[in-house]
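Treating backbone geometry as a discrete language has practical consequences that deserve illustration. Part of our work consisted of pairing the sequence of a single chain with a tokenised description of its backbone. What the numbers capture is local backbone geometry rather than side-chain detail. For completeness, the protein is quoted in full, as a sequence line and a line of structure tokens:
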Amino acid sequence: MVQNSTASSIIVGEYNAQCSIPEVESATAMLNLWGNLLAGILGAITAPLWGKFSDNYGRVKPLVAASTVLLASEVIIVLLAKLPDAIPLNWIYLAFFLEGLSERNVALGWFHGSMFFGFAAGPALGGYIGMAGGQNGPMLIFYAGLVMRVAGIMFLLIFVPESLPGDLGSKPSLTKNIDRSSRGVSRQTWMEMAKTANPIHIFSSKSITQPSVRQNIIALASVNTIMFGAFAGAMNIIILYAEYTFDWGNKESGTFLSTINIFRTLATTIILPLAVRFFRQFFHPPTSRSKREPDSFSHLDLFLLRIAILSDVLGYIGYALSPTGTLFTLSGALSGLGAIGLATSEASMTKLVDSAQTGELLGALGFLQAMARIVAPTLANLTYSLTVAKVPALVLWGVAAGFSAAGFATFWIDPGSRRDEGVKEEVVPLQEIHL
């Protein structure tokens, strides 16, 4: 900020000229860099643990635990916003620490649509709440966020049924498992312990007998990780860039976020199933549905994945070239089709492993995504911090290059392979949803 400015002199939710300077943009990028680095490292450690925990004790309990930790993180953010001159800014790193502990990725298919719908409705609702509070009640939006987080936890506890198959009551308690594990570890060699602790052990698991299936899982995980990393790296930079380049305030930023996430919601809940129905006739001849084999990756899945990646590449090139905020928003709408890629790659991987290994697979994928969250935002924020004064759009070209790398990685995928090589029936596209 400019000299003699204090945190209390900033008008929350409005355009503040004293903050729209390269020095502040650079400092903000560096804050995001260290915060994402901390959260990403912890997420890489905890994501596989959450996956194992959910396989043994159900899906709801880990979600409630992670949401509760996130609630504590948001409480810290609220205190920092409420008392900016009394609480040191370094306390925000505790919020990043708790965010890393709660790292958990279970969003597939329609889950992606629900998530992006929340991303779309949230900024718009936040804008209305912010305007209702005005300059006299800027904290209203923070309090609303806490209420929504508590409501989410209560919804999980009361309404969400347990989806893990089997009798959870017959499984040993958490304390007994910890005691058993500690006694087992004491009898293991260092090599055995390293193998057991390997968070991506499932990619070399003996339960995956077909080399082509293993190749597809690794390739899909690579594509998903690159896409996630590119998206995570650009997430904060896009808003910083738009506010710096187009003099946006919270109202314009909220409208932008709502617009692109509405398109992401439409992409995963409407465009994807309609596209499957339309293009299926060109990729698969009509056959009896009872003969279709679901446990594979079809040519249609590969086609949709590449289209999604192409939309991301074109969208981020559009971000870098847009001279106005309107064209910038339209570029974001185009990149919204990229949501299909994340949903397709994640759903495809879960189809290629046993249902009992789904949590372990998602834990391994969460570990890879957490590693991407360490590397990608670090590079993106550091690049933006160093180039914002001269070439602020350079980082957007870098993100477009990252999505291009994911596109090239799709050529490693063999859509003809399946778990049972003896089955010759037609493949059901993994994204098929009956409307």
Summary: Residues 142 and 281 are 49 Å apart (CA to CA). The mean pLDDT is 75.
